[in-house]
Amino acid sequence: MITLKSLLGATALTGLAAAAGAQDSDLLVFDYSGFEDPAFHTNYNAKNGADPSFAFFGEEDEALQKLLSGFKADVSHVCAGSVTKWVESGILEAWDTSKIPDFDKLDGNLLGEDVAADNAYFIPTDFGSTATAYNTEEVPVEAVKTLQVYTDPAYAGRITLPDNVDDAYALAYLATGVTNWQNATDEEFMAASDWLRAVHPNLRTYWTDTAELAQLLATGEILVAWAWNETYPTMVDEGYPIGFEREATEGSSLWLCGYVNLKDGPGSEDKAYDYINSFLNASNAATLMDAGYGISNTEGLATLGEQALIDAGLEPIDAPVLAQLPMSVELREKQSEEFEKIKAGF
């Protein structure tokens, strides 16, 4: 299974993809490693006779700095929490949504006010959920019906959170009663930070990728984890007693990624639209789901059926949802600085 978010903290892989098929020199996509898989852009290949060219990054701030330093590409993958910073950097041009036929089929819950416009800087394409994965043989379901399980001393040393500021603060905001971080006040930010600080002594570790998390859960070293949805079906398929509780009283989170149109790209603007339209096509839904992602195209998602969404941990839920939509640069930087202090024990 390809995992987008496990690459957020990975070592950067800068360079062109060495794909087996022919590459189109008229379109360079700046992306996480794994998205060069031809299965993700078959419609682009069918129209243009080749796959796009790719260059890779490992982390979004690193990608932004590379672009600001003069690296040129045509489109880039980015997750929603970083979008405002990228927009304010001046390196983006808006997408013309009239050239994106599936734009009106995108899930309105994933769009947010800043991107649901005739001209949008960010087109959401793929999403997943973050919720509580737990050992069903040692943790009763009642314990994970609240996010306060992370502060429960009964599980001290058997808990893990992702080493990812967006996911950590999504949990903390939910646990302190906030379901929209775009409008978080200073008081709400401090309450979330204090909650994370209280959880820190209970943690065994901050996990950095899904392979590490799966190992921690498989051995029983970890009993409770704030986890991405792709971990759950993989471990269940392998026979491990793992549950995935998205309907805690306080709720769970959805993360969201998509593509931005880079200003002054060296390639073809028309092919940039070919790429985004190929990725969003409903026919891509099953391919993305096989890799652990939901597609933002509601018609495409509907073709998979309810059971496929349940099995992947992406079904509609009857509980609050914090969508990881774009936030202000100031708030994201405050969260990043505070998270580093918390992890260091301060």
From TrEMBL:
<keyword id="KW-0732">Signal</keyword>
<dbReference type="Pfam" id="PF13343">
    <property type="entry name" value="SBP_bac_6"/>
</dbReference>
<protein>
    <submittedName>
        <fullName>Extracellular solute-binding protein</fullName>
    </submittedName>
</protein>
<feature type="signal peptide">
    <location>
        <begin position="1"/>
        <end position="22"/>
    </location>
</feature>
